[in-house]
Amino acid sequence: MQLGNVRNFKGVGYVCFLDILGFSQDILANWKAVESNPLEKLLAIKSALPMLDEEEEEIPSGASVRRYVCRVNTVSDSITIAFGLEPKLIIGDMALGLEALVANIREVWRAAIERGYTLRGAIDFGDIYWDQNELIGPAFINAYRLESEIARVSRVVISSKLNKVLADLAADYPGAMTDHLVANFRKDVDGYVIIDPYKMSRSDEDRKMLASNLQGMANKLSNPLLKEKYAPLISMLKESASIDHDQLGAY
C-alpha cells in the first residue's frame, strides 16, 4: 500500500516549497555553456528526487506493505514536495510521512550543493488539493510565502502549524519513532525550527565536502552581504544541534 502520493488528493498533508538559489543567474549567464551547463545541472538535481508512480511497483497479493512516497512537482528552479495523509490521521503515518518528506528535501539539497547551488524553502501542514496537472491549497500558499518572506538565507523553515504538530506528537506519543522524527530538526538563531543540515550526510568527510562547496560559492561573490548568507549553513554543517522537545510549538 502506497501512502502520500495518490493520483488525485484533497485533504490534509505536508507541503514543502523549495527554491534553488543561484540558478536563475546561472541560466542567464551560462545557458550555452558546454561545460557546467546550468540546464544539465538542474536536470541532474531533479533526478535525485524519487518520482514514483502509484502503479509502478507491484505489491505481492496478500502482502501488507506500507510505502511512504512523496508527490514531486518541478517548474524551472522551483520544486514542490507534498505528502497527503489519510482522512483518519494515524500517528505512525504522520511521523513516517514527514520523515519521507524530509528525506526528499535532503536528497535534492545535497544534489544542489554538489552542483554549485543551494536551497531555500519552507514546509507547511494543512489543506491541499492535487491532480495530474494542479497543486492548489492553503498549505501550498503558506509554504511559498514562508520561503519567500521568512527563510531569507539557505535553510528550510517549518510553519507554525507544523511546529505545533511536531510539539503534539512529541508530547502525546513519546518514544523512538517521534524521537527519531524530531532529531531531523534544530532551532535557528531567530527562533524558527528548521531542518538540520548536519543530517544531510552521515559522514564527516562528506559534510566537509559540502561545506567546502558552499564556501567556494561564497568566495565567488563580491558583495560581502551576499557572502555572509552562506555562513550559517556552513556552520551548521559542522555541528549538529537537534532541538529539545520542549522547544517545539513556541510560535
Features:
6-stranded mixed β-sheet, 251 residues, globular, 9 helices, alpha+beta, 10 strands
Distance between the termini: 35 Å
Q: Strand tally, please?
A: 10
What is the count of helical runs? 9
Gyration radius from CA atoms, angstroms: 18 Å
Report the portion of residues in β strands.
Answer: 15-25%
Major sheet size, sense and barrel closure: 6 strands, mixed
Percent range for helical residues?
A: 40-55%
The best one-word shape is globular
Spans where pLDDT lies below 50 across 5 or more residues: 52-63
* Element pattern in H and E: EEHHEEEHEEHEHHEEHHH
**Which whole number gives the mean pLDDT?**
90
List the helices and strands and how they pair.
Blueprint: E1 2-3, E2 9-21, H1 23-30, H2 38-46, E3 67-68, E4 71-75, E5 78-84, H3 91-114, E6 118-130, E7 135-136, H4 138-151, E8 156-158, H5 160-172, H6 176-182, E9 185-187, E10 193-195, H7 204-219, H8 224-228, H9 231-236
Parallel strand pairs: 1-3, 6-8
Antiparallel strand pairs: 2-5, 2-6, 4-5, 6-7, 9-10
